[in-house]
Design brief:
heterodimer, A: alpha+beta, Glutathione S-transferase Yfyf (Class Pi), Chain A, domain 2, four-stranded mixed β-sheet, 65% helix, 7% strand, B: 255 residues, Glutaredoxin, 6 strands, GST_C_Tau (chain A), EC 2.5.1.18 (chain A)
Chain lengths: 251, 255
């Protein structure tokens, strides 16, 4: 009798605590939005860091930026991203979130009342996530091979890069943006690589615009948005950075 | 399930059992037509089946021969040409983690991901880590030959597993009291890792080194709906052995 009494109390306590937790969660989310404690651990030429800058700008979130020297990582970076020790890391009220696409989704979920990055329909959301994942798997690593490679290796990488960009161009179709009428997750995931196009083209001696005119038109359209143009460094600065890197690596 | 008892010192003792009741997963008839194009040997496909079963979604499974890919697979995943592919009323969704999130958003019962944004981000981060580091780390350790190379690969793989051990400490499942998104993603460990260890002649998930993860694996594999989707161990072992031999012969024949 005592046990069943306790069980009843226990279950109602659980129901009550779940209710409180749900209410509390919504309140907490509002409070989190009001609290302006957002820090971004970043590195100026990183396309992944640029994604987060754009998302924060789109949502109108004030934040503190800490520039990391990836050759001499700060104790803060190591503490906040002990697994990978990579940027970007978003620190929201002391809690770190790593991996740029995961950070974008986090920003979209917490600051959900302005400029949504993902659509509401589950099918369209999965398509956006697929293409963002595709960009992650391909562009950075192939682009690196274009810039650092020589001879046959470089030619193969150039061909692969154009193929990928053409695939993305196909996905864009006649839309203004990958997100439709406004920018979305895929636009934010891809446009930072536009600042690297000049470096790919110069190192590889080819023109991306000649091969993918629609994609470059899309990128220029994106650059008309202040949230994007102010978040991205000058392509010539990126190229100087690449030259320095190549010199260091003896390429 | 857990029971409370009260000792004389007013300390509540909670006893967890592994008999989690998933009989609430009934099949809903109004969910549209759901098909899975997959290979039962692939842990990435099995996790999709687990998610559908947890949500009580009825589906048709189309087994794919990966050495001879069907026109259906090539049509619905032209970009990667890989399994799994989820077809919902003819619409394809690809990449297992994307599929899991789709399933979670489309069918709201028994949520896989936590509700709170930070916890969701953590689950996603760990899922990415598991798929990128743990799975490939284990496979590298399986494939490695020569004592030095093997030891190095094992060390690296165990470093990744150590992070998982920390995550499961103090919990029955990664999802808390019930299995969730991350449990499905780590779910390859009880069977697939065991088979890889056997094929590769090595031990990664040592019970003394990783007691919590080891216990999690024992509990996870006992859940009926998890168990019923697993391929036969012998079949999987033969497949891994054959893959290893093939890769080694390729390496040996390189000029």
């Amino acid at each position: 009798c005592w046990i069943s009494g306790q069980a009843l109390l226990g279950s109602s306590r659980i129901i009550f605590s779940v209710l409180i937790k749900n209410l509390r969660e919504r309140d907490l989310q509002t409070v989190r939005q009001m609290e302006d404690n957002v820090v971004l651990l970043d590195f100026w030429p990183s396309s992944f860091g640029m994604r987060v800058r754009i998302a924060l700008a789109e949502k109108g979130i004030k934040y503190e930026s800490h520039e990391e020297n990836l050759l001499d990582k700060s104790p803060l970076l190591v503490e906040m991203n002990p697994v990978h020790k990579l940027i970007p890391v978003l620190i929201h009220n002391g809690k770190p979130i790593c991996e740029s696409l995961i950070i974008l989704q986090y920003i979209d979920e917490v600051w959900h009342d302005k400029s949504p990055l993902l659509p509401s329909d589950p099918c369209k959301r999965s398509q956006a996530r697929f293409w963002a994942d595709y960009i992650d798997k391909k562009i950075y690593s192939i682009g690196k091979r274009v810039m650092m490679g020589k001879g046959e290796e470089q030619e193969v990488a150039k061909k692969e890069l154009i193929e990928c960009l053409k695939t993305l161009e196909g996905e864009l179709g006649d839309k203004l943006y990958f997100g439709g009428e406004t920018i979305g997750l895929v636009d934010v995931a891809l446009v930072p690589f536009y600042t690297w196009f000049y470096s790919y083209e110069t190192c590889g001696n080819f023109s991306i615009e000649a091969e993918c005119p629609k994609l470059v038109a899309w990128a220029k359209r994106c650059m008309e948005r202040e949230t994007i143009s102010k978040s991205l460094p000058d392509p010539h600065k990126i190229y100087s950075f690449v030259l320095q890197l190549k010199q260091k690596l003896g390429k | 399930t857990h029971t409370h008892t009260k000792t004389e010192n007013k300390v509540h003792v909670i006893i967890y059992t592994t008999e989690v009741d998933y009989s609430f997963c009934r099949f809903d008839c109004n969910m549209g037509e759901v098909k899975v194009i997959g290979s039962r040997k692939s842990q990435f496909c099995t996790r999709v089946e687990w998610a559908l079963k947890l949500k009580g979604v009825a589906y048709e499974y189309l087994e794919e021969d990966l050495r001879n890919k069907s026109p259906l697979l090539l049509k619905f995943n032209p970009v990667h040409k890989k399994v799994p592919v989820l077809l919902h009323d003819g619409e394809p969704i690809v990449e297992s983690l994307v599929i899991l999130e789709y399933i979670d958003e489309k069918w709201k019962e028994n949520p896989l991901l936590p509700q709170e944004p930070y916890e969701r981000a953590m689950a996603r981060c760990w899922a990415k880590f598991v798929d990128e580091k743990c799975v490939f780390g284990a496979w590298d350790a399986c494939r490695a030959e020569g004592e030095e190379e093997k030891e190095k690969a094992i060390g690296s793989a165990q470093e990744s597993i150590a992070f998982l051990e920390k995550q499961i400490e103090g919990k029955i499942f990664f999802g808390g009291e019930q299995i969730g998104f991350l449990d499905l993603v780590v779910g390859w460990i009880p069977l697939w890792l065991g088979v890889m260890e056997e094929a590769g002649g090595m031990k990664l998930l040592e019970a003394e080194k990783f007691p919590c993860l080891h216990e999690w694996a024992q509990n996870f594999i006992k859940i009926p709906l998890i168990k019923e989707c697993l391929p036969p161990r012998e079949e999987l072992a033969n497949y891994f052995q054959a893959s290893l031999s093939y890769l080694r012969s390729l390496a040996a024949n390189k000029p």
